[in-house]
Design brief:
Layout: H1 3-13, H2 18-25, H3 29-36, H4 44-54, H5 58-63, H6 71-78, H7 83-86, E1 105-108, H8 113-119, H9 123-126, E2 131-132, E3 143-147, E4 161-166, E5 177-183, E6 187-196, H10 197-200, E7 202-206, E8 215-218, E9 222-232, H11 241-265
Parallel strand pairs: 1-3
Antiparallel strand pairs: 1-2, 3-4, 4-9, 5-6, 5-9, 6-7, 7-8
Helix pairs in contact: 2-3
Length: 266
């Protein structure tokens, strides 16, 4: 049971003394000290009090070693995204850190995407993925990069690497914004999302390339969601020939209007 180490860890993380926390919980400091040193076991009322104080579920306090979690995982818990409290499919993300306990950005290359679809929650799989750091991204958020394939998101080129920020609560998915989504049947997809989860229990997914039709994805088919941050490619984006043709037409019309105006002024 991890209860004693967890409450000591969370207390120190908040910068609270035993006296501070004991007063807030309405118990004696010696009682709290007994819990932290595992010389006394809390009853159900005490467990409920600790759970409310830290906004962490009792199951988490008892069964999860919070000292082993990364900073972004702890931030998720502290923001209220606890799988046991939510009672949903939200979970603590499997992730890796560097030697200084900073979050890595794991890289899921094209050849690894099939394995990621089944190994995304397996720590043994995640830890063998290539990992790197980008100094201009926040250390308090979790990022992962995926290599995309195909032309459905042109002008972002085929084989580009897109980086996403992990989305814990899918209710915060913003419509008409790009997301990298791990699905049950299609694996990793990169699309513009329209959030209809509350109304219809679906995400409507759209491509930037108009040749591809939009389609709906049921919430039960979603495994992970990552908000698009940036992409890296060795190729220049294809020019927008339709836009260029329209620009040429407008320029020609402007010249013709100027010619007419000059004749009228003669």
């Amino acid at each position: 049971m991890n209860f004693n180490t967890n409450i000591r860890f969370l207390r120190k993380r908040r910068g609270r003394t035993q006296d501070d926390m004991a007063f807030a919980l309405g118990m004696k400091r010696s009682t709290l000290s007994g819990y932290e040193n595992q010389v006394a076991q809390p009853g159900i009322e005490a467990l409920i009090a600790f759970s409310r104080y830290f906004s962490v579920a009792i199951d988490t306090l008892l069964t999860v070693d919070l000292t082993s979690l990364s900073e972004s995982q702890l931030s998720q818990l502290e923001r209220g995204y606890d799988v046991y409290i939510k009672g949903s499919n939200l979970r603590v993300l499997t992730t890796t850190v560097d030697s200084h306990n900073n979050e890595n950005i794991e890289l899921v290359e094209e050849k690894a995407k099939a394995g990621y679809a089944t190994g995304f929650a397996d720590p043994e799989y995640i830890k063998v993925l290539p990992a790197f750091q980008l100094p201009f991204l926040s250390r308090n958020k979790k990022y992962r990069s995926f290599q995309i394939s195909g032309d459905s998101m042109l002008p972002i080129p085929d084989k580009s690497f897109v980086t996403g920020e992990y989305v814990v609560d899918w209710n915060f998915i913003r419509s008409h914004q790009p997301y990298i989504i791990l699905t049950r049947d299609e694996g990793v997809v990169f699309k513009i999302a329209e959030n209809k989860l509350k109304e219809e229990g679906i995400l409507s997914l759209h491509s930037l390339n108009p040749l591809y039709d939009p389609y709906d994805l049921q919430a039960s088919d979603i495994r992970e969601v990552w908000k698009f941050v940036h992409y890296i490619s060795s190729e220049m984006p294809e020019p927008n020939r339709e836009r260029d043709a329209l620009s040429d037409t407008v320029k020609q019309l402007q010249k013709e209007v100027q010619a007419i105006q000059m004749r009228l002024n003669l």
